[in-house]
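dumping this here before i forget
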Amino acid sequence: MLSSPSAQAVSERVGRPGDPCVMVIFGASGDLTRRKLLPALYNLAKNQLLSREFAVIGVARDAISTDDFRAKLKQDMQEFTGASIDADIGNWFEERMYYITGEFGDAKTFQQLKDTLQRVDQEQHTQQNYPPFLLLSSNNLPRPGSYAKRVATGVE
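structure:
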């Protein structure tokens, strides 16, 4: 899928693939993830603009497993991408999705996130590159710098 681009995909490519990373999505079970972020990520993968060393860790309050999260995202991808899903891209995506149940303000969530980031980094070779993507209401936004401190230390 991502190793040998088709002539059409190469001619449509607008830039180079992004760097290896684990995208952390806070609020991952929400509507914006389903309707906007997931289709955007799918289209980036389809156009070979995501690194092959890419993964997503979703963090949200819903008590679901990683397997349930993957199944939900697969269903949402089929519903909201606006086109038929390429099976290879869908499978590639599914293998790179992880989930943590937790609250943004809870130190235990960040310890679990730290541990999961390390495991995912080893599995997906993402070079410890962890950009956050926050899908939170404005009253839940963190203080500047608190995300990096929480991930690095597991505490606030």
